[in-house]
Structures are given as C-alpha cells and as structure tokens.
Amino acid sequence: MAQGEVLEFEEYVRTRQDALLRSARRLVPDPVDAQDLLQTALARTYGRWETIEDKRLADAYLRRVMINTRTEWWRARKLEEVPTEQLPESCVDDSTEQHADRALLMDVMKVLAPKQRSVVVLRHWEQMSTEETAAALGMSAGTVKSTLHRALARLREELEARDLDARALEREERERCAAA
Questions:
Q1: Residues 142, 154: Cα–Cα separation, whole Å
Q2: Which of 54, 121, 152, 174 has its Cα between 20 and 30 A from that of 65?
Q3: Do 9 and 52 meet the contact criterion of CB atoms below 8 Å apart?
Q4: How far apart are CA 89 and CA 52, in angstroms?
C-alpha cells in the first residue's frame, strides 16, 4: 500500500473511530469485545483499503466487516454449559417498557419529514457532529441546526398531544366504569 493510502487510512480511523466504536457496541454487549471487534475489522479493512474506490462508503464497508466478524465469532464460540444437580436461580428482565418506548419513538418519528428524520437519526442515534451530519446529507451546518430544532419541536408537540389523548382516554374509561 502506498504511503498516501496509509496516511489516508490513518486519518479516516482518527476521524471516524468514535462512530465506528458505537456501531461495534450495538453488535456486541461487552465494551471490551466491541473494541476487539473494531480493531479486528480495522485490521481486515487496512489490507483492502486501496480496493475501496469510493471512500465515502468506508463506514458501510467497515460495518459489514464488523457484522461478518461478529458472525464468525458467534459460530466459533464454545458452549460453556456445565452439568449440575440443581438449576441456578434465574432472573429475567422485563423489557416490555423499553420495547413500548422504542415502538412509540418509531411511531412518532413518522410525523417528521424525511429530511428531518435523517437529521434526527444522524445527530442523536448515530451521534454525529453537526458538521459530520451536514457533510453526510449534503447541506450546510446551519441547515442541520435549524432542521434539528424544528424536528425536535415537532416531536415534542406530537408526544404531548399523544400524552393528552392517552389521559383523555383514561378519564373516559374511569367515567364509564364509574357509571356502570
């Protein structure tokens, strides 16, 4: 690999490291495993860096390498089951509320225009900076800020309206039960 390619790869890693680590954290629950996953993906990508013609797609390429690597690790895992006389006590977390919150968020996001949705997702889900979001969407940083401001205000309005609707339904239900 040419010296210019090496420097380009190093610069890419330096600027995108945090976002790539967040992606790795979504793939594996352990933070140390996520760092290992990212390092493995970077090492594999380094050898293929010069074959990536459009460097703007490097994030997608690296995410695919991380997914494939995680799948390899999963397939190669050793099952660590130990036979025992008594079963251990197990505690199951109830994630119903978390799923309900996520479903509500996904539903509420539908009220936003596509451009607003893109800005919200990149800024708050992918945790990109304003400048990174602007570059990714081909708009100015000021446009990103104003779009994000309007989108968040619209989301707040929608959530408040839904909260008021839910309270009204609860009140009607109580009144109907009291009348019966």
A1: 18
A2: 121
A3: no
A4: 50
* CA–CA separation, 64 and 177 (whole Å): 55
Nearest alpha carbon to residue 70 among 113, 95, 101, 39: 39
Task: Count helices and strands (H / E) in the chain.
Answer: 7, 0
For residue 150, the SS3 value is: helix
156's tokens = 């707040």
Q: Indicate the residue type of 108.
A: V
Q: What are phi and psi of 164, to 5 degrees?
A: -65, -40
CA 102 to chain centre: 12
pLDDT by residue (tens digit) across 62-119? 999 999 999 998 888 766 667 778 877 776 666 777 777 778 888 888 999 999 999 9
Closest CA to 59 of 153, 128, 152: 128
